[in-house]
Design brief:
By secondary structure, the chain is mostly helical. It is built from 7 helices and no strands.
Length: 157
């Protein structure tokens, strides 16, 4: 899975992106030592964590990638701890993200299915904000012009 020569896989690029994000936000730490301030060191750490280092053997690279995948799945990266993220880069909340190799998923991620549920709930009663505003105007509801769609819905109940 991990390749030492040639292009990196989308999964490896995601990990490298996450490590560089940590570096840019001052979240990247080295071992027991302090914060990593050298960009070249950050790149070396990114390649190693992604299992894309040309200085490691094939088996060592795949072991490093597997370790990183476990760490990201458990939410133990500095970025996830600092920014409170459960997943790293779940694009569009669907499992056909680039990191999943672009496979078209039949199941959504938890976050994506939650979004889909709320869309389905709100979509069917279907009045637009303009329509709600028109009704509020007809009923002479005070403060209607500054209300959000949700507030208009509640005021018209």
């Amino acid at each position: 899975m991990a390749r030492t020569t040639g292009r990196t896989s989308p999964r490896q690029r995601k990990t490298m992106g996450r490590v560089m994000h940590e570096f840019e936000h001052g979240e990247l730490r080295s071992g027991r030592g302090g914060k990593v301030t050298n960009r070249r060191q950050a790149i070396a750490i990114a390649l190693k964590e992604a299992g894309a280092s040309k200085y490691e053997s094939e088996s060592e690279n795949s072991r490093n990638l597997a370790r990183t995948e476990r760490k990201e799945a458990r939410g133990e990266t500095y970025q996830q701890e600092r920014e409170g993220k459960s997943h790293v880069g779940a694009r569009g909340h669907r499992e056909s993200s680039r990191a999943m190799g672009g496979r078209n998923a039949t199941r959504r991620t938890v976050r994506g299915s939650k979004a889909a549920r709320s869309r389905a709930r709100n979509g069917h009663n279907g009045a637009t904000k303009q329509q709600l505003y028109k009704k509020a105007k007809a009923r002479h509801i005070p403060g209607r012009s500054r209300m959000t769609k949700r507030q208009l819905e509640n005021a018209l109940r």
